[in-house]
Amino acid sequence: MDNVKNDVYYVKKMLKDIIFITEKTEGITLDYPEKNEVLCDSVLFRLIQIS
């Protein structure tokens, strides 16, 4: 089966989401999310996926 979703699958997915968040938010200020709603929504979505 190629679609086995075990612990390794989920850890890799969480790591991918964490890497995305850190790369996309590097060097931005706290008021930046107000200026870029799409990025804010994307980061929040990734955080929800991790949780």
Rg for CA atoms: 14 Å
Helix content: over 70%
Outline type = elongated
Which structural class should the secondary elements be placed in? mainly alpha
**How would you characterize the largest beta sheet?**
none
| Uncertain runs | none
Q: For the residues shown, what is the average pLDDT?
A: 88
Give the tally of β-strands: 0
Helical run tally:
3
* Oligomeric state: single chain
Strand content: under 5%
Number of domains: 1
> N-to-C terminal Cα separation, in Å?
26 Å
Order of helices and strands: HHH
Describe the structure.
It is a single chain. By secondary structure, this protein is mainly alpha-helical. It has one domain (7-50). Helix content is 73%, strand content 0%. It is built from three helices and no strands. It has helices at residues 7-25, 32-35, 37-50. Helix 1 (7-25) packs antiparallel against helix 3. The radius of gyration is 14 Å and the shape is elongated.
List the helices and strands and how they pair.
Layout (H helix, E strand, L loop, with lengths): L6 H19 L6 H4 L1 H14 L1
Helix pairs in contact: 1-3
Feature tags:
single chain; 51 residues; mainly alpha; 73% helix; elongated
In summary, what is this structure?
The protein has 51 residues and is mainly α. 73% of the residues lie in helices and 0% in strands.
